[in-house]
Design a protein that fits this description.
By secondary structure, this protein is an alpha+beta fold. The protein folds into two domains: 296 residues, Aminopeptidase (3-Layer(aba) Sandwich); 110 residues, Alpha-Beta Plaits (2-Layer Sandwich). The chain is built from nine helices and 18 strands. The protein has an eight-stranded mixed β-sheet, sandwiched between helices. Strand 12 and strand 13 form a beta hairpin. Helix 1 crosses helix 9 and helix 7 packs across helix 9. The longest helix is centred in the last third of the chain and has 21 residues.
């Protein structure tokens, strides 16, 4: 099936963007953004949006780009400004740099060999069969693809060009926001929300066709430092306290039934994300997640009590916890303005596009933005198997996302301030 002009535009941009190395680094704490490639991509987007005719563009060296598309409504009509957001970084779960994307022009419905070691199988990915005869983008099996979130970036820039064209449908002012370091959880740390005019904002950072997400986890990161008493191993009895042993005892006390690999749906979890150290000091990073804030607080309290227990089990050893709430469930903000979700469902009806709401077992920059006062549900991009070498993107779904966004803009263009 031949790609439409819009889908081809999105595809070409996506292939251009994934070539730029934008993998963020959660271990970098003294630089924003955490990798130079992210700024490189932001600069490219600035050039492309300028070429499309957008004049109001704000580039923030902290890692943000805001582009405002002017309204083209008849004089005298005043409607809300609406925002759309995507992030330019990719995750580091597998290598996110050096991406070599491959386009499958007309998928034949069979397993896709990525390389001699890895195959994208239909048995494990039955959704592939929905796109037989259509265009897909896959990896070469050595890196992730970057659909999260360069598919969203490509969708928004292609749509901006369309909205700036002479045949664009009537619309109010539109703000496009491009962020960095979303995958580290710090994407909004330095963002000045006072720059935005938007009544609400839609993040274009979702997955499969038709998925709409308005509810996400509450998230906390807990860093635990274990301090032991090192001593010569040959004379250690009664003297040495091993911080590594303390950390292992601590982690083994966390219920396995409340881990990411043992939970789904609305069940939250503890996740030991990272551990490093030696006899003297060991550092552990845990991710806590729950849809209910009270349950998240219970998990934090459990770890605090466990830390005291470990100190009693290992006299002389010390355990210190530092907890940071990273983001909160964005639904609390979204539900206050029913028009935000109504715009999505109405847009889907206009396109005869089947939409369904699901919860995010994770979070987006939209969750942070909601905490800042701008509600931000999440819209699909056509990406699958995110953060893995098996990642793939359905090109026709990227186009459907763009058309849905266009209809959402049209909905808000009929809402008077």
């Amino acid at each position: 099936m031949k790609n439409s002009p819009l889908s081809q535009n999105i595809l070409e941009r996506f292939l251009r963007y994934v070539k730029i190395d934008t993998m963020s680094d959660p271990h970098v704490v003294d630089r924003r953004p955490t990798s130079e490639g992210q700024l490189e991509l932001l600069r490219l987007l600035e050039q492309e949006l300028t070429a499309a005719g957008v004049k109001d563009i704000v580039f923030d060296p902290n890692g943000y780009l805001i582009a405002r598309l002017p309204a083209n409504l008849p004089r005298g009509r005043s409607v809300p400004t609406i925002g759309f957001m995507a992030h330019v970084d990719v995750a580091d779960d597998v290598m996110g740099n050096g991406v070599k994307a491959r386009v499958i022009e007309a998928y034949d419905g069979k397993d896709i060999v990525l390389n001699e070691t890895y195959t994208l199988g239909v048995a494990e990915n039955p959704t592939l069969l929905s796109y037989k005869g259509q265009s897909l983008v896959v990896t070469d099996g050595t890196t992730l693809l970057g659909g999260d979130n360069k598919a969203g970036v490509a969708i928004l820039v292609a749509l901006a060009e369309r909205l700036m064209g002479p045949d664009a449908s009537e619309h109010g002012e539109v703000e496009l926001i491009f962020t960095t370091d979303e995958e580290t959880g710090g994407g909004m740390d330095a963002f000045d929300v006072s720059q935005l005019k938007s009544r609400c904002c839609y993040t274009i950072d979702g997955g499969a066709r038709g998925e709409i997400e308005a509810e996400c986890f509450n998230a906390a990161t807990v860093e635990v430092d274990f301090t032991g008493i090192p001593f010569h191993l040959g004379a250690a009895r009664g003297r040495m306290v091993n911080s590594v042993t303390m950390a292992v005892t601590f982690l083994n006390s966390i219920p396995q039934a409340e881990s990411p690999e043992a939970t789904d749906g609305r069940y939250g979890y503890y996740c030991a994300e990272e551990i490093s150290g030696s006899l003297a000091k060991t550092h552990v990073v845990l991710y806590l997640r729950d849809f209910d804030m009270a349950e998240l607080e219970r998990r934090v309290a459990t770890l605090e009590q466990l830390a005291k227990t470990i100190e009693k089990l290992y006299p002389g050893g010390k355990v210190e916890l530092n907890t940071k709430v990273v983001y909160q469930n964005m639904y609390d903000a979204i539900k206050k303005d029913p028009l935000i979700m109504e715009a999505i469902w109405e847009a889907g009806n206009k396109l005869d596009l089947e939409l369904h709401e699901k919860i995010i077992r994770g979070g987006t920059d939209g969750a942070r933005l909601a905490q800042m006062g701008i509600p931000a549900p999440n819209i699909f991009t056509g990406s699958h198997n995110l953060h893995s070498r098996y990642e793939w993107v359905a090109v026709p779904v990227m186009e459907e996302a763009a058309l849905l966004i266009e209809q959402i803009i049209s909905f808000w263009s009929g809402v008077s301030i």
